[in-house]
Structure formats: C-alpha cells, structure tokens
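We give the entry.
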Amino acid sequence: MCEGFLPIAGSSRFLLPKLHLERCVLQLRPHSKLHISKSTRKKSKRFQLSINAAFDDVVKGCHKQHGINWLFPPIVNAFRALQRETIEYGGGTIPVRFYSVEIWNATTGELAGGELGYSVGGIYTSLTGFTNEDAAGSVQLAALGKLLLQCGFINWDLGMEMEYKRQLGAELIERTDFVREVHRTRVENKDLVLRCNGRKNAKEIIDFDRPDDDDANDTKPRHGTKHDRTTNDGGAKKRPHKDEKMK
C-alpha cells in the first residue's frame, strides 16, 4: 500500500497487489478541483459524517450489498489492525493509516452508508463502500472531500475512471506519475491523519470556509439523486457507491 499498490484478496488465502495503468485522482492542493452540486449541498443537512466510528458495521454493509467478493475475513482483520493503530497512535511510525468513513441519518441516527479507505502521506485512497439511503452516497463523497481538504490532504485517489468521479473533479494520471507522488508524499506529508471529532453535520463540513456567494465549485446534479459508484476496483455498485471489486 505504501508503494502505491492496492491489496487484493483473490481468495481467503491469497493476497495480491494491484496497480492500475492509470488512476483517477482528484487534486485537493495546492488548488482544489473538488466540485459539489447544489443538489448535494441541499441534501447534506440530512446527514452526519464520522471517521472510524463503526468499522465493523461498514464492513457488514459492504458484505450485505456486494457479497464477500474480495473483502475476505483475513484482509478485514488486517485492515482492522491498521485502523486500530491509526486510532490509538495516529498511525505511529507506519506509513499507512486506515479508516472507516460513516454517513448517518441525522434524524434517526441510523447508519446510511459508509466506506473503507486508507492514506499514505498526503494521498487518501477510497477502497469500497455501500449505501442504505437515497443521496447518502453523494453526500458522503462531498463531505469526505471537504474533510480531506480541511485535514491538509493533497490528492484523493478514486481508482478506476468513472463518470461520477470526473464530475467530482478527478482526472486520470499515469501509473508512473502516481507511484512517484506516493513515494514523495509518504515522506514529505508523513504526519497527515484524517480526523473528525464525533459525528459532524455534513452540510457544515461541506460549507466550511466557503464564501456565501461562491458557487464556483457547484455543478449540475449527477443523474438526479442516484448515481453509481465503483470501488477502486471498478464495477458498478448500487450504492450510489463503488463496485465491490476493488480497483
């Protein structure tokens, strides 16, 4: 992971590295290319975002929506160990930090969706996720993007190219350029950690540091309230979220 490869579980016993020829990456710094639609902004007040609050529930949600697929128990255990290290020591000396991202219904308090992801230096990589509720996937993406910005991240790795990723502002970069950036940022930005204190209103996160009259980053809604997301592995999900076949 710290070399730019994705961990792929081909079965319950085999772990295989994977590295795409091209990566769909959204630049966050020095100038953010993140685009958030007015529709998503409006719906975001219905949700709350948290980090590392319900790892097992997010895994269960992914399994329920997509099946076991590549997310076998051994790799889940490895991810859980990385996540605990991230929570307890902020990652310590390890170059990889692991996270569960949760989106909650602000009225009922129920989990509306979530994803698993990790960071190496200033790059955050989305792996896989699920959704239980209309608009939850779109809002989670928007709020997570703004939270990554607030925490100082430089790039958001979204894996394979998909239309919704393009609409968010992501662009394709060559594998060699991606790996070069991983090697650079794991040293220069080694202390970055994705944090969110408790559950925070998604709209407050999205509107953070946004001028009232600035709609520069607003885009048209993406196919109404539902859109397909894929995992970093690519295939369509009903999430509106990522395919369970990672990158």
About this structure: The CA atoms of residues 37 and 219 lie 4 Å apart. The helical segments are 38-43, 55-66, 73-89, 136-150, 163-168, 175-188, 202-206. The beta strands are 6-9, 15-18, 22-27, 47-51, 96-105, 111-120, 123-131, 155-157, 171-174, 200-201. Confidence is low (pLDDT under 50) at residues 213-231, 233-247.
